[in-house]
Specification:
Strand content: over 45%
Mean pLDDT: 96
Structural class: mainly beta
Distance between the termini: 40 Å
């Protein structure tokens, strides 16, 4: 059974930092990443990393967020710095399997107060 379990969300003031973690089990993923769903918006891609270590970011988070992956532990983290109120969202961990199937975590709430 494939599972992705997120942790690390919470409430932080603008300008603060949070670190999200995602622990995966049951599969090895080609690409792992983070998505978010802001209030009233559709889910959007935030950052991703390949198994080989290539990383990509949504423009709005470049220079503030850092994605990192541990292939041995099968984890992916998202370090979020200089947080803004518009970063408030439910953040989802995502894993794209080599079978082409997308797997999702249950989501973790991040709230940034102004």
């Amino acid at each position: 059974q494939v599972q992705l379990v997120e942790s690390g969300g919470g409430l932080v003031q603008a300008g603060g930092s949070l670190r999200l973690s995602c622990a995966a089990s049951g599969s090895i993923f080609n690409v792992m990443g983070w998505y978010r769903q802001r209030p009233g918006k559709q889910r959007e891609w935030v950052a991703g990393t390949t198994r080989g270590g290539t990383t990509n970011y949504q423009d709005s988070v470049k220079g503030r967020f850092t994605i990192s992956r541990d292939n041995v532990k099968n984890t992916v983290d998202l370090q979020m710095n200089s947080l803004k109120p518009e970063d408030t969202a439910v953040y989802y961990c995502n894993g794209l399997g080599y079978d082409g199937i997308n797997y999702w975590g249950q989501g973790t709430q991040v709230t940034v107060s102004s």
